[in-house]
Amino acid sequence: MATKAAARATGTRLLAAFRAAGAVEVEADILQPAEALLDLYGEDIRARAYVTADPLRGELMLRPDFTVPVVQAHMAHGADPARYCYLGEVFRAQEHRSARAPEYFQAGYEAFDRADPEAADAEVFALFSRLLAAVQLHAAIGDIGLLMDAVRGLDTLPARRAALLRTIWRPARFQALLARYAAPPTPSTSRAALLAGAVPRAHWVGLRSAADMAARIAALREDAAAPPLAAAEVAGLARLFAVSAPAPQALADLTALCAEIPAIAPAVARLDRRLAALAARGVDLARVTYQASHGLGTMEYYDGFVFSFTAARPDLPPVASGGRYDALTSVLGAGRSIPAVGGVIRPGLVADLEGQP
């Protein structure tokens, strides 16, 4: 495993390359307000974060990544377009005993640009590909936005579509929910009685108001009365999520699926433009794998293009990863928004693969 000094030296080299590409170097506080991070990531982040309390500033976290503070700073003070880079340590508690360090360096590059989002995607990916070429990594891309468009196009209740979208980053939960909507289970005796109005209000318990309870029961009745998802739609989603091929072949597969899932057609057109922009920057598309499910189970703020560079060693996490997070800029920008894409490289892993002590 590379020493901290080797990781810092490799990170410094990457940072210089990011600056040469036109990015402005920025820093972010190590202690970050926990509230914004919990709102964005949910309580799941608490299990991976180091949380502490300050008598004046409230609950704080050791910096789990750089993207959120960089976006916050840009939305508050930045001019468009902008490119930023950074280098520093991040802190993630590990769930199991392993060689993975709970603190490690990240070197990152973020692009805020309205002009041509697909060109910005290609800019970040091609830059990372060039910087990591010597360590011979496997490159994979995907598009969370394409999957979300497919879910939004389902012929079902808006509440069901919203529930599926909330769980799309958790594949096991998503598939379980999809299966329930495709073949609703027989309601329990107590649920059936509640839906039939056989439970008097006097028996309602809990802290919710009567109006909240009535609204919830109305939603449950609407869901129980809704027809199941069509088998053809469920099968189409399964075929979509299973797409995994070299990028040119995946584009052809997805183009064919547009006849079955029309809602994905705009995203497939964006993928076509993105691949053309990557090829124009010298990326060999035949060596890039498109995986429709790529990025699921990672950071929930990604809502479009996602990518990663991984080593052949299965014991290592991704050496680099990133993606598009347009919606995050709106959340952190008090209504203002700008298309944004970025990524991070783990210099310590690069140093390991380069054989540096």
Describe this structure in words.
The chain has helices at 4-20, 34-41, 67-77, 117-131, 144-152, 158-166, 171-182, 189-195, 210-225, 231-241, 247-257, 265-280, 326-332, 347-354; strands spanning 24-25, 31-33, 51-54, 58-62, 82-91, 103-112, 138-143, 244-246, 288-291, 305-310, 320-324, 340-345. It is of the alpha+beta class. It folds into 2 domains: 4-21 and 64-150 and 235-353, BirA Bifunctional Protein, domain 2 (2-Layer Sandwich); 157-230, no CATH class. The strands form 2 sheets. The chain has a 9-stranded mixed β-sheet, sandwiched between helices. It has a 3-stranded antiparallel β-sheet with strand order 2-4-3. Strand 3 and strand 4 form a beta hairpin.
Question: How is the topology of this model organized?
Answer:
Elements lengths: L3 H17 L3 E2 L5 E3 H8 L9 E4 L3 E5 L4 H11 L4 E10 L11 E10 L4 H15 L6 E6 H9 L5 H9 L4 H12 L6 H7 L14 H16 L5 H11 L2 E3 H11 L7 H16 L7 E4 L13 E6 L9 E5 L1 H7 L7 E6 L1 H8 L3
Parallel strand pairs: 1-5, 7-9
Antiparallel strand pairs: 2-4, 3-4, 5-6, 6-12, 7-10, 8-9, 10-11, 11-12
Helix pairs in contact: 1-14, 4-12, 6-7, 11-12
List keywords for this structure.
14 helices; nine-stranded mixed β-sheet; three-stranded antiparallel β-sheet; 357 residues; alpha+beta
Radius of gyration: 23 Å
Strand content: 15-25%
Q: How many structurally independent domains?
A: 2
Compute the separation of the termini in Å: 7 Å
Identify the strand order in the major beta sheet. 1-5-6-12-11-10-7-9-8
CATH architecture of the largest domain: 2-Layer Sandwich
Approximate helicity band: 40-55%
* Count of DSSP strands: 12
Q: Main sheet, how many strands, which sense, barrel? A: 9 strands, mixed
CATH topology of the largest domain: BirA Bifunctional Protein, domain 2
Q: Which structural class matches the secondary elements? A: alpha+beta
What is the chain-wise order of helices and strands? HEEHEEHEEHEHHHHHHEHHEEEHEH
Number of helices: 14
Mean pLDDT reading: 89
Highest CATH level, the class of the largest domain? Alpha Beta
Q: CATH superfamily of the largest domain, called what?
A: Bira Bifunctional Protein, Domain 2
Residue stretches low in confidence (pLDDT < 50, at least 5 long) are: none
Principal-axis shape: globular
